Amino acid sequence: MRGLTLALISTALLGGCASLSPDGGFDPVQTATRSHLQQDVVWTRDDASRDQARSRVDALLAQPLSAEQAVQVALLNNPALQATFYKLGIAEADWVQARSLPNPAISIGRLTRGSEVEWDASLHLVLLRMLTLPMRANIEQRLFEKTRTEVILDVIRLAAETRKAYFTAVAAEQTLRYMQQAMDAAGASAELGQRMAEAGNWSKLKQSREQAFFARTRVTLSRAQMAQMQTRERLIRLLGLKDGASLALPQRLPDLPSELPALPDIERQALDQRLDLQMQRQAAAALAANLGLTRRTRLINVLELGLIYSDSNEEPTQRGYELSFELPLFDWGQARVARAESLYMQTLQRTAALAIEARSDVRESYAAYRSQYAIAKHYRDEVVPLQKQISEENLLRYNGMLIGVFELLADAQTQVASVNEAIVAQRDFWLAQSDMQMSLLGAPIKTPATAISASPVPAGGH
Question: How far is residue 207's CA from residue 210's CA, in Å, rounded to a whole number?
């Protein structure tokens, strides 16, 4: 009895301390965001915080955005992210509710027998819930911590998606400008070919080749325009902007780094940092606690204590208590325990599978990161300079009347195609870098970027 009294006293103290936190558990999310992203994130729950966030967004949009500035705008302005933050409020409310004492039930009755009038009153307490309150609060606390980790992961995923959308949009606009140059060259070549054919200096075959190249270039330009529109709109959505009127992007992608940083023991780093792995471990801990609670309450699932007071105008006052519980005659709780055990073991196996996926993700992302860097560097240092040198040599030959204007135009078209391919390679490197960074913290979202075709290279025969 003494142990029961102590348990009830500790439960009452625990329930008396249950209250919502002023920040809704958001401070650790801000700390983690600064640690992982070096960015700020704000939960705009009042007009003052909304106005402050809006001012920062307007200041950032006043100039062409860098990748990190685009991420900061998204973290401050994306309404879907703000909706995600309310997961914290829901989870914390569940935790506080689990720590709150159950309300007692009061019943009052009046009975008459002849001239006798009897009043009965009783106070009922859900004793089992009070005794298991610390365990239930522990479970909800672990679930709240899991939710907080999930919110942090959502913030980091939004940052990764925004960064990838930014690089894709900048590359699409840069490619579109080069495609317009290719279109100008193809149009000039087609017009000159038509004049040569009208003068009888060209065959129908040569003219048809120039017209076909011009038609293919027009189709490619239309695709580039569509890609530019799609990638820009995706970035606008992630930034939380109503339209793109205030969005300005730089003219070209950032330069490649001079060298890649060394990342030793990258798999161990991923296993230590991955937030999705932390979430699985937190879920396993909550299910382990739930399994312990289920085992302890398998036989007695209902336990109530009632304090009784009975007063009569003819009989002495009666006081007492009653204890009600569920008899385990038919249900011995094996099914509930088996279910809790299965859920726990399922989570353990999912955690092991996720650890394997994490190792594979980071190896794949790191290999793609280094490979895309080598490809982009090859275009920058070899392909584009060689094509530029060829163009300069052909210009000298044209000035010396060794080649005609059609050969010069065809060479310009080829150079534009090479530059476009270099832009795509540079874009793919920055996308691969974003995937690699994300793989260290969570599963990367490897969505294929919108295809940006280079301008078609004209067939021979000019």
Answer: 5
Task: Give, rounded to a whole angstrom, the gap between the first and last alpha carbons of the chain.
Answer: 103
Instruction: Please name the helix (run of DSSP H) or strand (run of DSSP E) that holds residue 116, with its range, or none.
Output: strand 116-125
Kindly list the structural domains of the chain, giving each domain's residue range(s) and its CATH number in brackets, ordered by start. 103-131+300-332 (3.30.1300.30), 134-298+333-439 (1.20.1600.10)
Closest CA to 153 of 42, 43, 285, 279: 279
**Ranges of the chain whose pLDDT falls below 70:** 1-18, 192, 201-203, 206-207, 299, 301-302, 325, 331, 398, 401-413, 446-462
- Sheet containing strand 105-113, edge to edge, reads 105-113, 116-125, 303-312, 318-325
Instruction: Give Cβ neighbours of residue 417 (< 8 Å, ≥ 6 apart).
Output: 182, 454, 455, 456, 457
Question: What's the CA gap between 64 and 74, in Å, rounded?
Answer: 15
Q: Report residue 408 as tokens.
A: 């010069």
Q: So what's the pLDDT on residue 428?
A: 95
Cα distance between residue 96 and residue 93, in whole Å? 5
pTM attached to this predicted model: 0.83
